[in-house]
Amino acid sequence: MAQRISGTPGTLGDQPERPLVATTAADTTADNPWPVSLLARKMKDYIDRMSTVWIEGQIIEVSNRAGASYLTLHDTTEDISLPVQIWRNVRDRLDAPLTEGARVVVQAKANYWLAKGRLTMQAYDVRAVGLGELLARLEQLKQMLGAEGLFDPAHKKRLPFLPSRIGLITGHDSDAMKDVIRNATLRWPAVEFEVRNAATQGTNAVPQVMAALTELDAHPDVDVIVIARGGGSLEDLLPFSNEALVRAVHAASTPIVSAIGHEADRPLLDEVADLRASTPTDAAKRIVPDVAEEQMGILQARASLNGALDRLLASEGRALADVRERPVLAQPESMLTGRVQDVSSLRARAWQAQSGLVVRAGAEVEHLRTQVRSLSPLNTLARGYAVVQTEDGSAVRSHDQAFPGDRVSIKLASGRLTAQVEESLPDPRATAHSDNHDTAEVTDTPRRSDT
After folding, report:
1. Is there a single domain that holds both residue 157 and residue 117?
2. Are the C-beta atoms of 169 and 198 separated by less than 8 Å?
3. Which of 94, 129, 164 is the last residue of a domain?
4. Are residues 148 and 87 part of one domain?
5. Is 407 helix (H, G, I), strand (E, B) or coil?
6. Are 120 and 151 part of one and the same domain?
7. Is the dihedral of CA 128, 133, 139, 140 positive or negative?
8. For the chain, what is the domain count?
9. Element (H, E) at 58
């Protein structure tokens, strides 16, 4: 390697060629880096090309000097700050001096100082955000969130009757925290709290309250969360109308109670919360029951139940007495006595009816018997008549059925005789009757012819 001789413009021997400077930052390497001045100038060139911009924030620090004022502008929702420089001529045009905590809108342009490598915002105009403008913005935000349904009563969750543990988000050692804990403990001594301290005003209020809300919402033992703060000005309560906080409360799965300020104060948190308490003390009364009132209610309920039970027993006793006084229960044997008498009466009637039927049937049988006896051949035989039968058992009704020498059997009323026919003669009366009948027929025949 060639050595450089002090005071000489060159080197002894040949000197290697230096590499070309990288065109872009992506082309730089460890062997071919950019000088600090080159990077600083490129940054300044880039920043100088930026146009002016209107930004809004809250002043958290201000320093006034002879020629300029230096302030730190903090974002209203996130923990991000930006230094702003205001020259004296711009500062002198302001209607009121700049103070910490003021909310302002600044027209500024980014400025990069090469010598110290510091980035600042150069302000050309500063305007304070007035109360009327804040109210108009809040009303506009309220209308927008309401149109999205964040304030719909249907989305509000019901608070538990007796929460096992209450989450409390409030300022450290604040009066609001003391009011909530003291009044809740007086109403229900066994109540337990899970307290998370957070800033309740200023630029750090929103991120801290949201972080505490996220932690308590995920706590398995917390049944309800109270966000409490004492009274204050509109600017002090602005964090509780922040859009990000309102959306976080709406998305929480645990019921939220808003206890911000006094009765007249109504930030947007009151609209989205599941329950709005007018004050922290009112919140304590709304989240836990009063043990004395509950005991009194129990006593009254027990007295009411005892009275109702006594009335029921008395009514049922009277009804039972009425039932017992009825004849069927006073003299239950009367039912059997009456039935016995009915059965006896029916049996007597049945016996009489049956006896009558038997008597009438007996008389009818006797009458029929008499008729049968009167018509019976035996009755005829008893009067002296007899039945003559041939040897084959046929009854002899005419003389021509038996001839002399035939043996016949004679049936008597009592016994039987055997005889032999000696003579068979016709009945003269029967013959005469037959002749008369034949003569009549002969006599009538011509008459029928003549006719």
Report:
1. no
2. yes
3. 129
4. no
5. strand
6. no
7. negative
8. 3
9. strand 53-64
Q: Which of 241, 230, 167, 239 is nearest to 197 (CA)?
A: 167
> Residues 140, 242, 269, CA angle at the centre, nearest 5°?
90
User: DSSP assignment of 155-178, as one string?
Assistant: GPPPPPSS-SSEEEEE-TT-HHHH
Work out the burial of residue 55: count CB atoms within 10 Å of its CB; fewer than 13 is exposed, 13-18 middle, 19 or more buried: middle
Adjacent-strand bridge partners of 81: 74
3-state class (DSSP) for residue 421: coil
Q: What is the amino acid identity at position 172?
A: H
Residues 175 and 249 both lie in one domain: yes
* DSSP characters over 403-450: -TT-EEEEE-SSSEEEEE-------HHHHHHHHHHHHHHHHHHHHHHH
| Per-residue CA distances from 328 to 317, 319, 322 (Å) | 18, 15, 11
Backbone φ, ψ for residue 64 (5° rounding): -100, 130
Helix axes 205-217, 243-251, angle to 10 degrees: 10
Tell me, yes or no, whether 57 lies in a domain.
yes
Residue 258 lies in a domain: yes
Which domain-ending residue is among 255, 289, 323?
289
Is 340 inside a domain boundary? no
Strand partners, 376: none
* pLDDT tens-digit readout, 229-278: 988 777 778 889 889 999 999 999 999 999 998 877 788 999 999 999 98
CATH of the domain at 249: 3.40.50.261
The residue type at 110: A
Cα 279 to chain centroid, rounded: 34
pLDDT in tens, 110-168: 988 888 888 888 888 888 776 667 777 788 888 999 999 999 999 999 999 999 899 99
Upper half-sphere CA count for residue 272 (Cβ side, 13 Å): 29
Q: Is residue 209 part of a domain?
A: yes
Distance CA 441, CA 437 (A): 6
Same domain? For 98 and 186 the reply is no
Bridge-based pairing of strands 53-64 and 103-113 is antiparallel
Locate 35 and state its tokens.
């000088």
